[in-house]
Amino acid sequence: MKNVVVFDHPLIHHKMAILRDVNTSSKQFRELVEEIAMLMAFEALRDLPLEEVKVVTPITPCKAKKLAGKKLAVVPILRAGLGMVSGIMSLVPSARVGHIGLFRNPKTLKPETYYCKLPEDSKDRLVILLDPMLATGGSASAAVSYVKEKGCTSIKLMSIIAAPEGLERVTKDHPDISIYTACVDERLNEFGYIVPGLGDAGNRLFGTK
What we know:
Blueprint: E1 4-6, H1 10-20, H2 26-44, E2 50-56, E3 61-67, E4 72-78, H3 82-89, E5 96-97, E6 99-104, E7 111-117, E8 126-130, E9 133-134, H4 138-149, E10 154-162, H5 164-173, E11 178-184, E12 187-188, E13 194-195, H6 201-206
Parallel strand pairs: 1-11, 4-5, 4-6, 4-8, 8-10, 9-10, 10-11
Antiparallel strand pairs: 2-3, 6-7, 12-13
Helix pairs in contact: 1-2, 2-3
């Protein structure tokens, strides 16, 4: 699909195999999610602009490159998205962090926002939305719509696992954003879970049921 990047890296494949395993502990699961998010961020942030600067090494002055002031906002979709934050922040510690909480309205069955806290200048930042599981795509699409309503125009979505149905939904609703995922699984089952997937990412991250 246009604007969808699916990773094909040996380290990501290896870590995904352990992440999926039902016997992987919550501690291991959290660490793996952080590591995979960090590896994905290398590619997702590939197009950050650079500027030439002059630095003085212990030997001699030289020209080097630094980020050209492009500001970032890392915004996890609660609660599972929280597991991806540390991996990205270890690469870009100056990024600001926002949060979006969504729930499904029992009457309309549509996602609604119950909590949102974004950096004040988020409309001037590249917003990286984080959601480990892109299943139906409803929540992710709603989160993208919400940050757009706040004036954000530069948006990327990072998901560790995506279902074809979720990718189709988000790319249809928001053809202007890029989506990064470590793998695309087969399908959704009758309960809306990704197959083969890895279960409920939030429960496995935090040791809940």
